[in-house]
Amino acid sequence: MRPSGRQLDQMRPVSIETNVMRHAEGSCLIKIGNTHVLCSATIEDKAPSFLKNTGLGWVTAEYGMLPRATNSRTRREAVLGKQSGRTQEIQRLIGRSLRAGVDRSALGERQIVIDCDVLQADGGTRCAAITGGWVALRLAVNKLLAAGTIVSDPILDHVAAISCGIYAGQPVLDLDYPEDSAAGTDGNFVVTGRGRLVEVQMSAEGASFSREEMLELLGLAEAGAKRLVEAQLSAIGG
């Protein structure tokens, strides 16, 4: 029934390769099926000006897609002179999601910037960016701890994200592009390692959805997030 032949609750293959960038404090290449996202973390020694003298740190994100990440070439936003609304919305989502798993007082007055660059897109790029972005963040924080720059671990929990939707009338997990583009309902779920929800984005692309269908998608998302947390743990050797 699914174009890929997967079962309704079957995710695409997930792999996370760490330390793929020489200069970044933390980095990984996450592959979820044919969606590939390069994530890196950069530690900056001062927090944004709005946090000056608060003792609080900050985690933020930037997101972009390479011109041929998709079927046809997309012009670089730098050439156009501005970011699209979609790009701004996604990078704010990534930043919000990752901050939900961080004790900003333990981080101290410094900023960690997570860069997420989509090398290849086949649906779920924002979810892959959040999941891989957490791994890059974890590796960067490990370096702060090892150097004694901070004394307590600011990472409170894992953060992972997964897409679910209603495709051909059935709730399905981990939408690829053919499903995403034809789904009647599309949802993105950001979930912590303890199973708590950080953010839920759901919209009816065709017919409206019922409360029961929403709960079915939530159940799929919770199961998918657990598998992603297992992949994160495997990647960082935890």
Automatic annotation (TrEMBL):
Residue ranges crossing the lipid bilayer per the database entry: none
Keyword Ion transport (UniProt): no
UniProt keyword annotations, A-Z: Nucleotidyltransferase, RNA-binding, rRNA processing, Transferase, tRNA processing, tRNA-binding
Reactions listed under catalytic activity: tRNA(n+1) + phosphate = tRNA(n) + a ribonucleoside 5'-diphosphate
Keyword rRNA-binding applies: no
Molecular function GO terms recorded: 3'-5'-RNA exonuclease activity; tRNA binding; tRNA nucleotidyltransferase activity
One GO term of the biological process aspect: tRNA processing
Domain Exoribonuclease phosphorolytic span(s) in chain numbering: 10-140, 159-223
This enzyme's EC code(s): 2.7.7.56
Enzyme class: transferase
Entry-linked InterPro entries: ExoRNase_PH_dom1, ExoRNase_PH_dom2, ExoRNase_PH_dom2_sf, PNPase/RNase_PH_dom_sf, Ribosomal_Su5_D2-typ_SF, RNase_PH, RNase_PH_bac-type, RNase_PH_CS
Cited PANTHER family: EXOSOME COMPLEX COMPONENT (PTHR11953), EXOSOME COMPLEX COMPONENT RRP41 (PTHR11953:SF0)
Description of how the protein assembles with itself and partners: Homohexameric ring arranged as a trimer of dimers.
Protein name: Ribonuclease PH
Organism: Pseudotabrizicola algicola
